[in-house]
């Protein structure tokens, strides 16, 4: 009987990864029934454990969808957020870059965040973001707008008949990058895995390290502190990937010792910048990773989350971090910061069209900028990394225009710096954000650039 329950739990996880949400709900009901029968028949001592598994799954499914998209019959529509030709803006290749994302490390350790098994919500969202859509179920190589049972299959917007196993130029689709999922790893585990991924990188390969974890600062480190040359890479703290005290006592420590053994400091990553590295840090101490030296001259980009959130979002960290949500599904994040929980499918499709135009225009501004760093020119060639950079730009501009986010600590940052001043001064991008806000009926939440007292970050 226990083996059967374990099978149910594992199969539910597989269905979550495949976005078979209707099947997830059916399996959850059956799984709950089986657990209750097991407890009644065997009066098992592990009844609390199985009850916690049911609760974890329910909370994960509930919190995974930050914004429900409803069809004409007010039924929820299941959307995929994997990469395909319809949710990735079609742009011309820039520069002479040749890098391809081939190795991905996804690390998670947010104490308050909802999880199921060893997969937190942030990890789940980033895992979905870094996957290509498989061929649709109706025809072997075709994506359909609406599936057999009314579920959207394979795209967020666009027309049916788009081939998802081909690149825009007709060449075969590139394979998905190889991924490592690390939930609460010790430092030795993290170091071992990143070294293995580093070893597997080819001459044209790039590695992405995504970290969603609670931050830890040095006792003297404060917001905006610059590192000291004598201890550069360690004096601003880092992110905690595993807390032994939490495991032993199941209590979140109020005061975290700076000398935490399972803490990733910026300097711990320096050796792996010998090859192209794309770093994403979503933490309340992301600023510690802001000043990365160019030690080996290889392409390196670091996208960093805001360190502070408005009070009304602080109490909802169990639903995942806003920065990761922007990288995963920009429209859902936009609706979330505007306080929306449901959006009509027709409105969603219109909003997706505006977002696509925004990303294309943003790409045009970046590639035409004379100040764009060489690393971005190399990484923008890859489909996944290009989408992450463009969604970062969308996140940055939205939060800077949003009246609820005031101050540089509420905005994301990156290294090397992007020409964000050129984007913030773009009337075309401003117009699209205002159109999106008007479409979602939340225009009053956004400031008009050049008017009012809302201050914008300058570079």
Automatic annotation (TrEMBL):
Q: Which InterPro entries match?
A: SCAI
Q: Which domain of life is it from?
A: Eukaryota
Q: Which Pfam families match?
A: SCAI
Alphabetically, the GO molecular function entries are: transcription corepressor activity
GO BP terms: DNA-templated transcription
* Name of this chain's protein: Suppressor of cancer cell invasion
């Amino acid at each position: 009987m226990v083996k059967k329950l374990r099978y149910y739990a594992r199969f539910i996880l597989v269905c979550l990864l495949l976005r078979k949400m209707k099947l997830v709900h059916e399996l959850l009901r059956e799984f709950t029934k089986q657990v209750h029968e097991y407890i009644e028949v065997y009066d098992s001592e592990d009844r609390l454990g199985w009850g916690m598994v049911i609760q974890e799954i329910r909370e994960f499914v509930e919190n995974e969808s930050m914004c429900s998209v409803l069809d004409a019959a007010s039924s929820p529509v299941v959307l995929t957020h994997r990469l395909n030709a319809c949710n990735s803006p079609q742009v011309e290749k820039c520069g002479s870059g040749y890098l391809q994302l081939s190795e991905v490390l996804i690390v998670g350790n947010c104490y308050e965040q909802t999880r199921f098994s060893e997969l937190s919500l942030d990890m789940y969202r980033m895992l979905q973001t870094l996957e290509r859509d498989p061929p649709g179920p109706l025809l072997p190589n075709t994506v359909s707008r609406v599936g057999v049972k009314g579920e959207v299959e394979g795209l967020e917007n666009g027309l049916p008949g788009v081939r998802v196993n081909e690149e825009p130029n007709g060449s075969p689709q590139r394979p998905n990058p190889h991924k490592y999922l690390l939930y609460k790893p010790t430092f030795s585990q993290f170091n071992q895995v990143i070294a293995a991924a580093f070893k597997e990188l080819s001459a044209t390969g790039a590695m992405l390290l995504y970290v969603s974890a609670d931050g830890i600062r040095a006792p003297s480190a404060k917001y905006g502190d610059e590192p000291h040359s004598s201890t550069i890479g360690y004096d601003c703290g880092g992110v905690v990937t595993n807390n032994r005290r939490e495991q032993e006592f199941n209590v979140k420590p109020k005061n975290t010792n700076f000398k935490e053994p399972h803490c990733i400091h910026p300097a711990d990553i320096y050796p792996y910048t010998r090859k192209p590295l794309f770093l994403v840090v979503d933490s309340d101490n992301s600023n510690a990773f802001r000043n990365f030296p160019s030690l080996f001259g290889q392409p390196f980009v670091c996208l960093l989350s805001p360190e502070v959130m408005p009070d009304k979002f602080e109490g909802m960290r169990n639903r995942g971090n806003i920065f990761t949500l922007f990288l995963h599904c920009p429209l859902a994040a936009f609706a979330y910061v505007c306080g929306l929980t449901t959006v009509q499918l027709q409105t969603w499709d219109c909003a997706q069209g505006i977002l696509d135009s925004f990303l294309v225009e943003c790409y045009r501004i970046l590639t035409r900028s004379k100040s764009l760093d060489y690393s971005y020119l190399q990484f923008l060639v890859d489909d996944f990394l290009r989408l992450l950079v463009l969604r970062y730009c969308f996140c940055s501009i939205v939060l800077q225009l949003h009246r609820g986010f005031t101050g540089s600590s509420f905005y994301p940052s990156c290294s090397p710096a992007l020409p964000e001043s050129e984007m913030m001064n773009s009337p075309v991008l401003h117009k699209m954000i205002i159109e999106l806000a008007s479409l979602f009926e939340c225009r009053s939440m956004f400031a008009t650039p050049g008017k009012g007292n809302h201050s914008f970050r300058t570079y």
